[in-house]
Amino acid sequence: MESNKKYWKGLEELQKTPEFVENNKGEFSESLPIEEVLNDAGLKTVTPRRDFLKALGFGVGAVTLAACQKAPVHKSIPYLIKPEEVTPGVANYYASSFNGVGVLVKTREGRPIKIEGNPACLLGEGRLDAVGQASILDLYDVSKLKGPKLKGENVGWQEVDSFVRGELNKIQAGGKKIRIVSSTINSPSGKAVIADFIAQYPNTRHIQYDAVSYSGIIQANQSSFGRAVIPHYHFERADVIVSFGADFLGSWISPLEFNRQYIRKRNIASLKNKKMSRHIQIESGMTTTGTNADVRIAVKPSEEALVLLNLYSALGGAAQTQKLSNPKAEKALTLVAKELTAARGRALVVSGSNDVNVQIVVNAINSLIGSYGTTIDINNPSYQYAGNDADFMTLLGEMQRGEVDGVFFVNANPAYTFGNQKEFSEALSKVRLKVSFSDRPDETAALCDVLAPVPNYLETWNDANPVAGYYTIVQPTINPVYNTRQAEQSLLIWSDNPVKNYYQYVKNNWERTILPSVGMSWKELLQKGVATTGGASIIANTGSTLQEGAGAAGTIAATSAPVASGARVGAVNIGAAAQNILKTSQALAQGAEKGAELSLYESVALRDGRYANNAWLQELPDPVSKVTWDNYVAINPKYAEKLGIVEFDNVIVKAGDKSIELPALYQPGQAQGTVSIALGYGRSKVGKAGDEVGKNAYPFITYTNGTFHRVASVTIEKGNGRYELAQTQTHHSFEGRNVVRETTFNQYANDPYSGTGKHEMEHKTYDLWPEHKQVGHSWVMAIDLNACTGCGACVVACNVENNIPVVGRDEVRRRREMTWLRIDRYYSIQDGKNSVTEENELKHLDNNDFEDVTVVNQPMLCQHCDHAPCETVCPVIATMHSTDGLNHMAYNRCVGTRYCANNCPYKVRRFNWFNYWNDSRFDNYMNNEFTQLVLNPDVTTRFRGVMEKCTMCIQRIQAGRLQAKIEKRPLRDLEIQTACQQTCPGNAIIFGDRNDPNSAVRKALDNERTYYVLQELNTQPGIGYQTLVRNTVEEA
Amino acid sequence: MDQLINYTFVIRKCDLDCIFDFTFNFLAKNINMRSISLVFRRIAKSLLLISSLSLGIQANAQNQPASNTAAPQAASGDVAAESGAAPAGDAAAGGALFKQKCTSCHAMSRVVVGPALKGINQKYDEAWLIKWIKNSQALVAAGDPAAVKVFNEYNKVVMTAFPELSDDDIRNILAYVEAESNKPEGAAAGTGTGAEGETAAGGDGVSDFMLGSLILVVIVALLVILVLNRVIKTLEKVILQKQGLLTEEDLVVEGESAAVRFRRLAKNKKFVFFTILLLVIFFGSWGWVTLWNVGVHQGYQPEQPIKYSHQLHAGTLKIDCQYCHFSAYKSKNAAIPSLNVCMNCHNYVTASEKYNGETSPEIAKIYKALDYDPQTKQYGDNPKPIQWVRVHNLPDLAYFNHSQHVTVAGIRCQECHGPIQTMPEVYQYAPLTMKWCINCHRERSVNHKGNAYYDKVLAVHETIKKGVKVTPAVLGGLECGKCHY
Fold first, then answer.
1. pLDDT of B60 strictly over 60
2. Most buried pick, A80, A160, B97, B311, via CB within 10 A?
3. B 78-137 residues inside an 8 A Cβ radius of A
4. What does the CA dihedral A968, A974, A975, A980 come to, rounded to 10 degrees?
5. Could you give the CA distance from residue A301 to residue A293 in angstroms, rounded to a whole number?
């Protein structure tokens, strides 16, 4: 054994709690009370034997009668006049964009059913994150408004128009203020519409308000460089990445893009060149980014900024600092400073804090290590977030003073996201005209008079400018389903714009401004979906063109030389910033002396809460905690023990007069003395799926020094009772078998096979089955653990593609989640140099504080074993091996014995306990005809009592083969992509034909790092994994 | 007894399947009122059928000479042209040209795209018409008042120029138009229906007649045999009585009541055993067959909202399947064509000659669905899709792709859909059972010639299965997941 490191999915598994053992035993069978029924007592039980027989007899009779009915008559209704481009049964793809990321929308017979990344998009390069994948479900959301409302009455648009126009004219005459409150708008046309509106009503101002804002960065850049922007980061150019609590792989600014960039320095190609970036994460709660870090140091939020200050001075900057009390951080600091200096011009420091002062210091550090012009491009900034916290606070004051007579809310929901909701609603009530452009009657809309619902982005025209010089177009793929109208269109009409049609407006705008400079026609643009101006240097992350150090042209002169940059940043007084940081940190630490420090983070799935009604995202297990359908108080187990809190105990978190009660969750890696709570939960008016799921943590956000701070000092008390979270982490247990393999970069450099187990003596294997000869195709998959960040995009993509039902919180608690593809997250404990190898070793580590845990993410799906254990045990031969290496599952043959699931060592088979499509218990999902339109018509929905599992997207394989046959050509490599592969931001999943010697999958599987999970069982899996490589520095 | 046989005959004529059912009812059960009325209804039905049949044969016989004389329509046209006022041209040659060049936009007495042509020779002079037909736009451009008027009247639709037509060609066409205009309105319709009836009756008549007479012969023979048998029996009895050989016992048996006789039979073990055995075999095999056919709807022929005839379109008119069902070649669905496909032809094909100048009621349904006004050629805004009834209902659990079978494998539509070109109303020809699919996948060869996709796959396969016929089954076409996912 090369590694006998002990991996575990949850503490309960590590400590083998009685509960866990009991649950694990009942993974497949609940014992039936057969003995009871058969003995004499059988007649006295709740269901006596005779009753049972009666029911049985009646049941058989009823079923027989029911089966006698005539076959139903099916209607077939063709188009009256068929659109030329539509062929029934053939999908059409349209280019559009989601949050500035170019996407291709797959439509069948006019209805969108799947979203893929647009390969032409520079941010996603054909990939998409979980949120983008799931966004298709929002189109079919039944909780949306079906038409405009005026003071609670359903009205037509004409009434709304005349009312709003009348009011606007009155306001204009009265001379009071009008405000448009929106989340960040980076659409050039949208901004132009607002500008036109302002021209018509000059008292108007546009206020951008982001629930989770990046005001700190924007203001810091204003003060450091005189540019109020978020710079464009280039993680792919960084050899050393130091992140202070920035979850850039999960939710920070542009996670999809950063995932792609980050993996470029860690994937197979990079490792082949013996290159790998080094990633150091300093944070309090465990984030997705933290799970991928080579070194992770847990610090309190109050320490985070101090470490930063110390780092600045260690790098040679002059600022007042305070000595760190945390020895681990102290030790790491010297190392980090050394590495950053060594990697000058190839390093990047980022911080997730929204404190201006912290970001000023980050800027100063980045100047010192020469990041500007290399890893940070401030000349071509990102426009993904532009919210200004101070503006919003000013608005609040204006409303309170009664100076504002008209407010329009565009994609902003301050009644939910603003900390002091009472203050906000009272202020808003003083406004005369309140218009909500929300697509649903949400928290803010409930306070508004006019509800002018907007359509989904799949029903609208729009554009976006996520990064300077890069534009995407949004084009509708379906007519508006409900009686909705775009906000921009409404504003055009209300401001009497000569162009009343927003489509025309967007088109005019592009034809006037962007199209001439990119040399494209409108039609070409619609076909391509994206446009780039200003040269390719803007976003040079297209693989081969990447040159280290050669970043964007024209870097800020002052920052290109360290001395000059120091002077530049120093000019805005680092000293003052340092002083402020010390003060804030001190206040935070002092406030938490009798309690804990709270850090609030954006949930990877729900983000700031706007996707809360998306059942796919609600059921997507959190990448770190694997909790679904709830938020919770993440707490270190040791710290919890100290407070007398047991996991799933309700705890009351209190800060001043604000308090919420949430269940506690043991989170290894969480810093002592801290707790973390996810934002985005606890919505009260979002819809069937998301209402009252979790608790709203926004009230803890405080407004300090001009920005919203997502940290607070709180007290923690034990609350009433327990609440069992629906956590999937220990479901589908491997019974302690080691299924992940890892190595370090140094070991890998010496021996590429390290960690794979290939040097061990081969097991003597015995085949119980004859060999399967795969002479035609042989479909296999390769998964690179080093390229998987655990973001969860594949899980959602699989759900969408394969019509996998959502089961809801209760069913997840019963271990009945249906996802075919899950991402197993394993912890292991590092005790100094040694890793913990066995459960009982842990007992000897008395002072292990569960802070130093390392994490491995492993996507787990049907391995399509050649010698599949499931196939042997099926009594009805419902699961069979195919000649092309797939493990087929014939649903209609399955009788639901579940023997196969029982015999699968990978635990990847799922059983349908209900008819999730047609059962009122699952009302929050697809139990309605409208939402069912999202289903993929090429995949059957499974009936109750049937087993299912990953098919390797056999519908795509068949379609791809057919296309090749029709075109009379051989199949091309990578022509067929599975849903998970197609969306994976890290390109960690490669699918293809093993029998094709030039295929990408063959090359990946021939890689030295390849190993097969549970190889020793000789199941001959069709999926090979590549070891995780950790770029740790062996300490002397 | 005689009557019974008569009934059976009649029913066989009516419906072969019913006979078993009926005789079983008639013999095994008592004849109750319901079955009697049923019997009578069937008799009446079949009597009607026979009478109509014989009438049809008669009509056929009468029609034969009539249609012969009516056939050369052009000839009568000639006469009309000669007697008529205008153009001296060959109407027969003109007719051919007219059908080739003009029918897509013109009819005699109604507006299609262009104006109705009846009386055109009287309205315009020949020279003008020749100019107009050769190049109408030139006339319009030249500012000819008549030309401009017509052009504006018909929504400025440009008439195709026919420079390839010679003056004589045009004269011939005009002669044909004249001849057609002079024909009485109803005449065309009358001959049309007559011809239709003829083919219909003629086709069926012969075989029905043959069948009928054959059955009659058989029945007469049977009757003769039965009567003779009875006569022989009576004669035997008489002879025996005369000879005094008739015993007491026989006489007692003669007088036994039915109940006693039944009881005696019930005690006969052999009889009981065989009866039960027969019943078991009967019900067993009946049940077996029934169960196997649960959900099999072979022969399913639902009534459709429009009496669309594949016999006419695919059979008589020989329209390619792909013209309407184009998606069968590139999609999994063969798809019922959308109405704009119908309108490609039915924009001017209204079959009005069969309905006294009115649009055929079935074609009118298309117009109604589209909310289309054939007079003004305008589409309204209240269209209502046509709800066809699916004939071939493959269960959702099976994935079937037309393009795989039609385009890649090159299978003709008829192989699965049967003689579709002879079906006035479509019925399900194939059983659409999995057995049926599998059999075909086992027996047919893969159509791999010239398809580069198969080259690689087959090359590998053939090394293993030398000399084996390459069926879909060999390439994994029988595996569950290939159709069920």
1. no
2. A160
3. none
4. 150
5. 18
Determine whether domain A730-1030 maps to CATH 3.30.70.20: yes
Map tokens 């391995």 to a residue.
A863
Q: pLDDT value at position B78?
A: 39
pLDDT at B9: 36
Q: Over 50: is that where the pLDDT of B189 sits?
A: no
Residues in B closer than 8 angstroms to A888, CB to CB, are 479-481, 484
CATH architecture of A215-380+539-577: 3-Layer(aba) Sandwich (3.40)
Number of domains composing chain B: 4
Per-residue pLDDT tens for B322-350? 899 988 998 998 889 999 899 988 888 88
Complex-level ipTM: 0.83
Question: Given CA atoms B247, B252, B258, B262 in this order, what sign does their dihedral have?
Answer: negative
- Asked if B476's CB is within 8 angstroms of A89's CB, the reply is no
Checking if the pLDDT of B82 tops 80, the result is no
What is the reported pTM?
0.81
H or E stretch covering A408: strand A404-410
CA-nearest of A632, A620, A714, A647 to A674 is A714
Instruction: Sketch the domain layout of chain A as residue ranges.
Output: 163-213+387-469+478-517, 215-380+539-577, 598-727, 730-1030
B152-175 residue pLDDT tens: 877 777 788 888 888 888 888 888
Same domain, B95 and B36: no
- The length of chain B in residues reads 485
Residue appearing with tokens 């190049």 = B135
Angle (CA) A325-A331-A335 rounded to 5° is: 140
Q: Which CATH number fits domain A598-727: 3.40.640.10, 3.40.190.10, 2.40.40.20, 3.30.160.100?
A: 2.40.40.20
Q: Output Rg (C-alpha) for chain B, integer angstroms.
A: 34
Torsion of CA A466, A469, A470, A476, to 10 degrees: 80
Q: Which of B327, B338, B484 sits opposite A890 (nearest CB)?
A: B484
Task: Give the helix/strand (H/E) hosting A106.
Answer: strand A101-108
- Ranges of residues in chain A with a pLDDT under 70 are 1-3, 26, 28-47, 69, 534-573, 759-763, 831-835, 838-847, 1034-1036
On chain A, the residues whose CB falls within 8 A of the CB of B370 are 80-81
**A886 interaction partners in chain B (CB closer than 8 Å):** 481
Q: Write out the two tokens for A132.
A: 């983008």
